[in-house]
Amino acid sequence: MSIDARPSPARVSAAAAVAFPRWALFGLLAAYIAAGLIGRDPWYSDDLAGFGVMWTMAHGTAADWLLPNTVGLPLAEEGPLAFWLGALAIRIFGGLLGDATAARLACAAWFALATAALWYSTYRLARRDEAQPVAFVFGGEATARDYARMLGDVAVLLFIGTLGVVLRMHETTVEGAAVALIATALYGLAWALDRPGAGATLSGVAVGALALARGPLPAVLLLVALAAALWIVQRDPVRRSALALLAASAAVVFSLWPLAAFALPADLRGAYFTEWRAWAWRSVGLPGAGELSWSARNLAWAMWPLWPLAAWTLYAWRHSLCSPHVVVPALGAAAMLLALLLGEQSSRTYLSLVAAPLVVLAAFGATTLRRAAENVIDWFSIVIFSFFAFAVWAYYFAMLTGTPPKMAASVERLVPGFVAPAPLLPVALAAAACIAWIAFAGWRVLRHPPMLWRGPALAGGGLTMLWVVLVALFQPAVDYSRSFAPMARELRLSVAQIDNPHHCIETHRLTPAHRAAFAFHGGVRFAPEAGGVDCPLALQRDSLRSELDNDPPSGDWQLVWEGRWPARPDEVLRLYRRAQD
Q1: Contact 220, 85 (CB under 8 A)
Q2: Could you say which of 7, 96, 115, 132 has the lowest number of CB atoms within 10 Å?
Q3: In terms of domains, do 379 and 343 share one?
Q4: Distance separating alpha carbons of residues 12 and 368, to the nearest angstrom
């Protein structure tokens, strides 16, 4: 029974608000981000294309840093910020770790920023009076600090338990940076409730950095959402100055990039930014029926389990929709959903951007679920993650032994010709992850713990376990399927036999990922995209699924080499030599 008159749907006892053990939380986060960052090649295609920009910057000139490109191919899309951090990591740690692994240190940095910002955003919002649970008649309710800390833990656990985030946080793309910056903007706004000037400035810096990383569309929409939330939760005259600081700091941060580019030749920067502005306008459009259907289908699985909890938060706190802990993440989520719908062809790269505000919103739903609903979610996580872990092990043994035959045939179709190794350490790590999962699930089933973080911990722990098992057992197979290293080395040998290996190669129908792979793994020196250089060799990509790229390079050429990627038999790479007069 409670005596509090506030319309709070949260009823949280002191036992339910016990913090998640710190050693377990940090161990879980370390396992989540470490798996998949080391011991592999850049994966085709987004991961490889992003790495190519970072690698070009790290080994290039100031123009490469300010005007992102992939080995001479301009990338007049998105922005340079995420690539700057990866390139800096290559410059500092590339000699020690290798360029590919060093670049992925940026992924770990963005993940650390994202989790810290989400924890502190939720903590600050939960400490406010509007978000507090009701007091019990005879005492025993959670203190404000314990309640807020527990919700911060819930937010982080939900984040690592989100299906659509795990792969994107491990790739050298802009998505990890964008998620971290959105979370930082939310934290800045939560901080602005107590320190309007500092908090609004931090939010503006994060929004400006988001524009530098992901382009103007999500940044502008997030800026509008944050300004609206600030207008709702703050009072005059503070909110006017806070809004000015928010907008001004965002504009200043973004302007640093084009201002720095003034040090470059006018024709070079002019052509690049003209193309960048064209991309910015081209990337915005009204969605059609197909795009709306695509977004709904993919959001349903990519944002699981966030969207059911976020929807429940809006319902449970329907009498407090203008409270900061509801309106701030709700408007942020609405802005990112709008970015997904308005983005060009509803690109999947916008999916993960919805996660950060949904995490904060969903965390406040965890304190209002009824016991029966909590049990259903807990059992769902236990059953689903246990089933998929069993399936992963079954496919691994089928890959090694050929039994069961149907499973082995399925693996062979995905990685034809792959000979699976059986190293002891990865198998031991996968087994340890499963044992830890069984122990945690058994504790939940046998002890019936009262802590409210148990459901989010099952989601975060289950997905982390599954990710560790997948990486440990199947990373060699994924490398075989998604790495261009063998073909690049084969091309390098062919070039050395045909002509001077230091001569340039013209490209025909190659994607940025192809250019990055052949330059990094094969040491190929491509001709500048602007042209003006006659190279003795030309490399063509021909996709057998399309007739649009069947034509060879223009001019008089002789075919001297042809290569196929084992995992993509429908794609052919052809090397031509210019005909001798």
Answers
A1: no
A2: 96
A3: no
A4: 9
Alpha helices per DSSP H over 352-418: 355-363, 371-401, 405-414
Q: Which helix (H) or strand (E) holds 51?
A: helix 46-58
**Residue 210 forms part of a structural domain:** yes
Residue 5 is predicted with a pLDDT of 46
C-alpha neighbours within 13 Å on the C-beta side of residue 224: 11
Whole-angstrom Cα distance, residue 205 to residue 182? 11
Instruction: Give the pLDDT of residue 190.
Output: 95
What is the model's pLDDT at position 2?
A: 44
Is 5 within the bounds of a domain? no
Strands 537-543 and 505-508: parallel
- Co-location of 387 and 340 in the same domain: no
278 and 406 both lie in a single domain: no
Same domain, residue pair 40 and 61: yes
Among 514, 555, 520, which Cα is nearest to 538's? 555
- From residue 256, how far is each of 208, 263, 448, 469 by CA, in Å? 10, 12, 54, 43
Instruction: Say if residues 403 and 483 touch (Cβ distance below 8 Å).
Output: no
* Structure tokens that stand for 292 in this block: 């709306």
Give whole-number Cα distances, 328 to 96, 112, 373, 475, in Å.
Answer: 43, 22, 26, 39
Amino acid 3: pLDDT? 44
Token pair listed for 441:
């699930």
Nearest to 55 by CA among 119, 104, 7: 104
Spell out the residues 6+ positions from residue 77 whose beta carbon is closer than 8 angstroms to its own. Answer: 215, 276, 279, 283
Residue type for position 138: F
One-letter amino acid for residue 71 of the chain: V
How far does the chain reach from its first CA to its final CA, in angstroms? Answer: 95
Place of tokens 């792959």: 418
- Mean pLDDT per 10-residue interval, the chain, length 581 residues: 57 84 95 92 89 95 94 89 96 94 96 97 93 73 89 96 93 94 97 93 97 94 95 84 94 95 91 92 82 85 92 90 93 94 69 93 86 78 94 94 90 86 90 96 88 91 96 92 87 80 79 90 80 78 67 81 79 84 56
6, part of any domain:
no
pTM score, two decimals? 0.94
CA distance 265 to 63: 9
- Same domain assignment for residues 170 and 187: yes
* Structural domain for 559, as ranges: 485-578
- Beta strand extents in 73-113 (DSSP E only): 73-74
Residue 56, φ and ψ in degrees, nearest 5: -65, -45
